[in-house]
Amino acid sequence: MLIAIPAENDPAEGRVAATPETVKKFVGLGAEVRVQTGAGLKSGISDQDYVAAGAAIVPSTAAAVQDADIVLRVRRPSAADIAGAKQGAAVIAVMDPYGHIDALQSLASAGVCAFAMELMPRITRAQTMDVLSSQANIAGYRAVIDAAAEYGRVIPMMMTAAGMIKPATIFIMGVGVAGLQAIATARKLAAIVTATDVRPATKEQVVSLGAKFIAVEDEEFKQAETAAGYAKEMSADYKAKQAALTASHIAAQDIVITTALIPGRPAPVLITAAMVETMRPGSVIVDLAAERGGNCELTKPGETIVSKNGVKVIGPLNIAGRLPATASALYAKNLLAFIETLVDPKAKALAIKWDDELVKATLLTKDGGLTHPSFQSGG
């Protein structure tokens, strides 16, 4: 069984799909591991580190994937990136499948079984494989650090000989994994923190972290969560009421961090240009939904802009990847946990159980076609 770790070919991507720790585990499973030279450098991992863990270093992507049974990536590869892998090889990555049917069809035509780690079901046995959570934790932390760096004042209250400095107010919009980590980080910086989410279950979590919960808590709010734990699309009436509450609250905030995403859809606009106009000069908005268009009407993905009234709006891309060493360590463990379910430890070979709920949820391509019901040709 050969596991390939090619280098990412996006120059903005600093993460890598395996660490020396996970390479050792793969070797323990009976695998031969090939790592493309330099694959881990941006994550602080040298080729020598991989060699010491039992991997072989090869000079190119082609050399890494040749005859591979499993190919591990951070981002979705092209068909050319996996050329030479075995027919039926498992190619595992964050596939970003929504709106990219042509790219998925290309992988299908290459004869590989493509798995999307971000589609992992949120069930107990898959917690260690939850890429969205592992990377969102980092994103939530980094969002607060970035906001603090851009904010022209200190965050905590300070008592000085020259007088008292008031603490910053930080508002977190969307209390998923990223939002909760943002709350925790902001509280550690001694900010006054408030948060909002359409899911009722988040209120207790927000309060437990020492923040205040802000929401229109009507009957619709009480039914605003899917069985899988995701936020439902809210009615226009609820959105209007929530927007009015949010608008009055945002006007008094120093920093706002937005994290609201609905899988497969453009990010909902939570902060309008008119709301931004009510904020004080020097205030900061960090939009973690920038890759899906943004939660702020003024967000420009990948850019930091300053509004007419002096508010900084930051639209980061791949924010978890800006802390690549930590992000890679967590992502690699997510992959390892999943691969352990795909391998027969006695035969030391790939043995995918096609009826496994984890496989059914994440498998995109098989036998030359698109297999996932949500991602079909023309769909």
Strand content: 15-25%
Question: Ranges with pLDDT <50 over ≥5 residues?
Answer: none
Distance between the termini: 35 Å
Structural class: alpha/beta
Query: How many runs of DSSP E, i.e. beta strands?
Result: 19
> Helical proportion?
25-40%
Query: If helices are DSSP runs of H or I spanning 4 or more residues, what is the number of helices?
Result: 12
Record the strand order, biggest sheet: 11-10-9-12-13-15-14
How would you describe this structure to a colleague?
This protein is α/β, with parallel strands linked by helices and 379 residues long. It is built from 12 helices and 19 strands. The protein has helices at residues 20-28, 47-53, 61-65, 101-109, 131-150, 177-188, 202-208, 219-222, 236-250, 273-277, 324-342, 357-362, and strands at residues 2-5, 32-36, 56-58, 70-75, 90-94, 113-116, 158-160, 163-165, 169-173, 192-196, 212-213, 255-258, 284-287, 304-306, 312-314, 343-344, 349-350, 365-366, 369-370. A 7-stranded mixed beta sheet has the order 11-10-9-12-13-15-14, with helices on one face. Helix 7 (202-208) links the parallel strand 10 and strand 11 (212-213). The longest helix has 20 residues, at 131-150. The chain is globular, with a radius of gyration of 22 Å.
